[in-house]
Amino acid sequence: MALAAGRAMLMRSGVRLGTQAAARGGNGARRFMNHRVVVEPNTVPAGLDLREMCGKNPAHYAEYWRAVQEMWLKVYLSNLVLVAAINGTSPAGGCLIALSCDYRVLADNPRYRMGLNETLLGLVVPFWFKDTLVNTIGHRASERALQLGLLFPPAEALQLGMVDQVVPEDQVQSTALSVMTQWLAIPDHVRQLTKNMIRKATADHLIKHREADIQNFINFISRDSIQKSLQVYLENLKQKKH
Amino acid sequence: MALAAGRAMLMRSGVRLGTQAAARGGNGARRFMNHRVVVEPNTVPAGLDLREMCGKNPAHYAEYWRAVQEMWLKVYLSNLVLVAAINGTSPAGGCLIALSCDYRVLADNPRYRMGLNETLLGLVVPFWFKDTLVNTIGHRASERALQLGLLFPPAEALQLGMVDQVVPEDQVQSTALSVMTQWLAIPDHVRQLTKNMIRKATADHLIKHREADIQNFINFISRDSIQKSLQVYLENLKQKKH
Amino acid sequence: MALAAGRAMLMRSGVRLGTQAAARGGNGARRFMNHRVVVEPNTVPAGLDLREMCGKNPAHYAEYWRAVQEMWLKVYLSNLVLVAAINGTSPAGGCLIALSCDYRVLADNPRYRMGLNETLLGLVVPFWFKDTLVNTIGHRASERALQLGLLFPPAEALQLGMVDQVVPEDQVQSTALSVMTQWLAIPDHVRQLTKNMIRKATADHLIKHREADIQNFINFISRDSIQKSLQVYLENLKQKKH
Fold this sequence. Notes:
The structure is a homotrimer of 242-residue chains.
Chain A: E1 2-6, E2 18-24, E3 30-36, H1 58-76, E4 81-86, E5 90-91, H2 92-99, E6 103-107, E7 114-115, H3 127-137, H4 139-148, H5 154-160, E8 165-167, H6 172-184, H7 188-208, H8 210-221, H9 224-241
Parallel strand pairs in A: 4-6, 5-7, 6-8
Antiparallel strand pairs in A: 1-4, 2-3
Helix pairs in contact in A: 1-8, 3-4, 3-7
């Protein structure tokens, strides 16, 4: 997945998950920040690095999860226009980031599927993942998608409203660019205030329950059964690589 | 309507409303509980037994309504997978129970209609009926459906998202079984936690206002005008039976 | 836009925005009240009179905005059935009033567009405009529509659920009348209680934050940049008139 983050237009293709943010300093000069969340494509099927969740101590888990929360809050409340140009499968955390953008363009390739499939990994989706999905596709569709851990092919993702457009693979970036142009035509300050007004309640829900969410993550991820299933999962991925 | 409740697969056909729950004891053995809510098909067009609302005293109404709330909370928050196999008309309370399941399969028979038609009976739908409908078909569609007391035929129920599938009448049970199989393939504990996380706020809304909701029911149902219209209604049903 | 407000059936055509309310006194006699909100079509492209927002002092803005809030609360929580018969473009405040009715019939004329286009005027939509839109078309569609200030032609408005029916222009009023007939067939007191139950939370959201919303309006509208752009806008309208 690539994020187009503007006013400056940043595009990045590939299966890596990257959030790229452009910010303008007070003097009008542009500074670019690049927050990479995830590194190795094959070890990050959940969009988050599963190795960070495996065999570590509670303090590590706490720090890691706080960083994930922070990353999401930055993306979700970003003053930038964020357009997701999706040319790969977007499971779990990868899907969350796409859902947190302002617009989603998905390549019309039936192998590319998208969804919060945590239950299939033996994980319970955090409530703010759920909130973000409900905002996008509604309550009923979210209930089914989350419990079954469904990954949707492009046609279904479009019908559900999980993405805004499905286009031929070689037009994903140009479509995202043209969407970005449309969004950037809106008076920027007013658009930012409007976005923030709409998204504030959802972000505040996490902010208010942030520590409980971290504790919840630690308790869950520390379970023997979860650790065992994550290890098996990572082993399988390693062997696929060789 | 029938509910398929599983891990154990329980199916029951007919127009009676039954909730059947299967629970496993700590030792892994299965115990089955059978909570019948409603008895006589022809006297329960609202899915709840109208005779319980007619000519009784406030203490009776309070006890009755508390039991209805309790039944709904059990169904709505059930750890079991509940699939509604609907082969009859589901008005009012019957519709509520169907909406509280995890999935709804409706027979493709235009005579089978579904909806919260309380206004047509002179009743105001309780707020948690409304919450459940809004979760399923959204706010706008609920506003119209509730005020007009609409009962939707299968095609419209499907389009609104009030049911998930409409199939020929003789395939309702097999379809429900196959849906159940899909849901039971998900790691059970994680699915339960996920379901609870999604539904908790809606259930808490009732739990928080439970006593006020009971008082509201008593005040409303005790009105002379309501009692009179319920009596006329029940008389008409009796005469239809003979 | 015309509002059909009933039990008494009131229809008014034209591009003027009028809310007309019929109330019955305790003695069963009908009294009619006529609250006009907006006067000059060409100066009220936002559905609200922009001249009230231009070159005035904070006390004036406060009084004006409180009246706008009051008008909306009356329409949104009206005990009357309100059917919007829309035969013109409904931007901003005009759209809000239509969205606050019980049903919307739009003339099938591609020149008639509808939406909350505040960002294009350099304005941030108040949170209760947003709440009303989200209730009607959902969260995701609202995010995009509000940020981009989209005005939808009839076909799109219908698909989004922003209106309930699109009919040939000469059938708008007769369709609205027939919809009104359907709504008036419902027992009135029960319908009113049901409507209030559904809408109460949204209205309470404004009532709770009413003073902050006024303060917010004053702060925003008093900015030099906003005043300048409103003046340019009004000048352009005047010149179009001549």
